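User: Structure please.
Assistant: Input sequence and predicted structure:
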Amino acid sequence: MQTYTYSSIPAQCFLGESPYWSVERQSFFWVDIENGKLFEHQLDSGKTTIKSFPHRLTLVLGGEGGELILALDRKIASFDLSTEKLAWLTEVESDLPLNRFNDGKCDAKGRLWIGTLSTKFTKGSGSLYRVGKDLKPEKQLDQLTISNGMAWTADNQTFYFIDTPTRQIKAYHFELETGEIEFNRVAVEISEELGFPDGMCIDQEGMLWVAHYGGSGVYRWNPTTGELIEKIELPVPHVTSCAFGGSNMDTLLITTAQENLSKDQLKEYPLSGDVFLVKTETRGEEANRFVY
């Protein structure tokens, strides 16, 4: 397997997540969920800025007008970077105060797919929602525990999804026009010693790059054969998500976490919570934006 080199950004997130590449700003965004922080890192200048919110901030992605779309606790909002104005768009599970949003992505039609979990990680307490132009969340999957990574194939016929504790990446038939999904098969089974699958993205060859929580790296899986192709080894245990970006879409930004590490482990793995940049030999696709 290839050996990768990385550079790190000293973010020191408690729970770094949701990397997103903004083409117009030529910068990476990510969040520190529990601390409500939004990071922006300009790739050319190397400058990082941080904005803080009085909520758990679980997701950042792009809106159709250049604004950001944020998931805060159980609500979705648009955020104007120039005015710093936050506008609430929709909400889920107001009857479940222990729940919060987690990972999310937009499909090729601009619909937002976003999951929930219980902050107590209660089995079966999470769901996956689809949010379209009418801003009404529609439940697509339930009985989830940690709704997590998602990706679509280039032909928009397959949707990949991770419910982390299952240690599986599931493939669903995807109907682009309607946004309907139907379970097809388990594409990848992840063995215990490799940790838990967390966030993921897909490259132009259709391979899945998956952050392994407790697995010290990002693993590249072939979802057709279920085989592990390669691994980006990182000097931290808890790797949480990854996204392609950069001018050639060949730079992988990887988020990590300090949570669930003891003081001794944090001394042993001092870069835990930092963000890593890795140049790959493949490319990703520009992320879809939320159309509403």
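The first helix runs from residue 263 to 268.
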